[in-house]
Design a protein that fits this description.
Layout: E1 3-7, H1 12-23, E2 27-32, E3 51-55, E4 70-73, H2 80-85, H3 87-94, H4 96-108, E5 111-117, H5 144-164, E6 168-173, E7 176-177, H6 188-198, E8 202-205, E9 211-213, E10 215-216, H7 217-229, E11 235-238, E12 243-245, H8 246-257, E13 263-266, H9 281-287, H10 295-310
Parallel strand pairs: 1-2, 1-4, 2-3, 4-5, 5-6, 6-11, 7-10, 8-13
Antiparallel strand pairs: 9-12
Helix pairs in contact: 1-7, 3-4, 3-5, 4-5, 6-8, 6-10
The structure holds uridine-5'-diphosphate (UDP).
């Protein structure tokens, strides 16, 4: 049985990855410091003999007994609200945490995958964004703590590949949504659902003309799994190329939830990217993967989850 270590296991993406690897017949070791993670997300796995959980902060030395075939480093605050609130922890988990886990991967001879991000492109001047684009990031701006941690993470991971011949995977993850997001994590999509359910004003920042491209969790998990099982060591964009303005997203969620909420405009945060859309040519070609779930279906499933939470 193959053994995989997943950091950020109690988080949104991490917990879905735990499910996937259990389903695929792996022994899964989950790790999380529960800064933004929630044990409810993995409660259903805790009784399994093939699942174990370590409450640990990967910014400090990481020890795992026995062999490891794969390490997936998915621990990090991921919502702008969270990383603005916890800038130092965000920088540490992306830098020190990645270094510790790379050391562990090297010692165990494990394949090492990182959850990088579309934020490495910053406020992009090339649209849509191919992996070859180097990005437009303000290192000392409010989002720099996340963006630069992830850029450093890519750099040190590639250095371990080049100099230590470590087998690596770099997933550049675009806005992902679905069950187990925190309704109050501050990101646009869960926030709009939360506001619609509570019949509060829908807070669109700026004109709402800024765009994002949202991928449903099941598609994202499939992409990550296929990338891990490939032998491709360069960065790969994993996202849904269907682009939408934030105002349009607010309108769609309001219509879906049949909410009486009113859309209001608040100031646009500093350095907020104006556009974001993945070029997924590499993922299509190398992994034979592309997203399958429409926004209509994905939003409906997400609403079902959030409305159950409300009760
Ligand atoms: N946004 C918004 N209202 C909110 C939260 C976010 O209009 O209540 C905007 C935000 O300014 C950005 C977009 O929605 O332009 C996506 O923000 P999110 O925090 O979801 O993720 P990002 O892609 O910026 O990391």
């Amino acid at each position: 049985m193959k053994r995989v270590l997943i950091t950020g296991a109690a988080g949104f993406l991490g917990s879905h990855l735990c499910d996937k690897f259990i389903l695929e017949g792996f022994e899964v070791i989950g790790m999380d410091n529960l800064l933004t993670g929630n044990m409810d997300n993995i409660a259903h796995l805790m009784h399994l003999p093939t699942f174990s959980f370590h409450h640990h902060d990967v910014s400090t030395f990481v020890h795992i007994a026995g062999p490891l075939d794969y390490i997936l480093h998915f621990a990090s605050p991921a919502s702008p609200n969270d990383y603005l609130r916890m800038p130092i922890q965000t920088l540490k988990v992306g830098s020190l945490g990645t270094h510790n886990l790379l050391g562990l991967a090297k010692a165990k001879g494990a394949t090492f995958m990182i959850a990088s991000t579309s934020e490495v492109y910053g406020d992009p001047l090339v649209h849509p964004q191919p992996e070859s684009y180097w990005g437009n990031v303000n290192p000392v701006g409010p989002r720099g703590v996340y963006d630069e941690a992830k850029r450093f993470q890519e750099a040190i991971t590639m250095a371990y590949h080049t100099y230590h011949h470590l087998d690596i995977r770099i997933a550049r993850i675009f806005n992902t949504y679905g069950s187990r997001m925190r309704r109050n994590d501050g990101r646009a999509l869960p926030t709009f659902f939360d506001q619609c359910i509570k019949k509060e004003d829908l807070t669109v920042y700026g004109s709402g003309d800024q765009t994002r491209s949202f991928i449903f969790i099941d598609d994202q998990v499939e992409g990550i799994y296929k990338l891990l099982m490939s032998s491709y060591v360069q960065p790969v964009n994993l996202g849904n190329p269907e682009e939408i303005s934030i105002l349009q997203l607010a309108k769609e969620i309001k219509a879906l939830t049949q909410s009486s909420s009113t859309i209001v405009q608040l100031p646009l945060p500093l350095d907020d990217p104006k556009v974001r859309q993945p070029d997924i040519s590499i993922a299509k070609k190398v992994l034979g993967w592309s997203p399958k779930v429409s926004r209509e279906e994905g939003l409906q499933k997400t609403y079902n989850y959030f409305s159950k939470l409300a009760k």
